[in-house]
Amino acid sequence: MTHRILLVEDDLSISNMVKGYLSNEGFGIVCAFNGEEAYQIFLREKFDLILLDLMLPKLNGMDFLKMIRESSNLPILILSAKDGEVDKALGLGFGADDYITKPFSMIELAARVNAAIRRAKQYSISEKLAEDRVITVNELTMDLENFIVSKNGIDIKVTSKEFAILKLLFTNPKRTFTKEQIYGLIWNEDYYGNENVINVHMKRLRDKIEDHSSEPKYIKTLWGFGYRLGEF
Fold this sequence. Notes:
about 230 residues, alpha/beta, four-stranded antiparallel sheet, 9 helices, elongated, phosphoprotein, Sig_transdc_resp-reg_receiver, transcription, WalR-like, Response regulator
């Protein structure tokens, strides 16, 4: 089965280079050169992933990303010429799944694309699991109906906040959440730099669910950005 990718890049040379390489890797590539064109294509056709440049004419990449996230969890990988941590964090905070900074190697890009598509398939919850409200990731299982977390069949005692944090990550496996987003979603309060609260809860949760909390597999830290569910 050929995976289809929407490539949104206004630089013709980069677009042609990426399209040529990924086409040779077996992907079906559809190109758009501005945000408005890309959004119209997205509405008409089905894709497995979007490669998105941030600096676009007519409709910029960030606005395009926000529009997509209103209706779709499709994997989105940002192509950015900006090397600032703030720009990367902003992109991830709005719902991008990954980013790669220009200039990039085609081998690395293909690896990131394959990883993003694999995550989307690996963590998609089947209709049966959605009905049962049970999610399993590697050795961990969350029973959302009965508020139970277990590892290899053994129940783990977690607090309500710890359960809520884990549920947030398990039900949004492709997303990276900033500390501000986690605080707002879990505590339902405005975030005033309450990093210590998040840090303490993350440490306690890791101590309970990880084999080695200093080398976490389930809750990954993206330094400078936030937290996301690990890959298995």
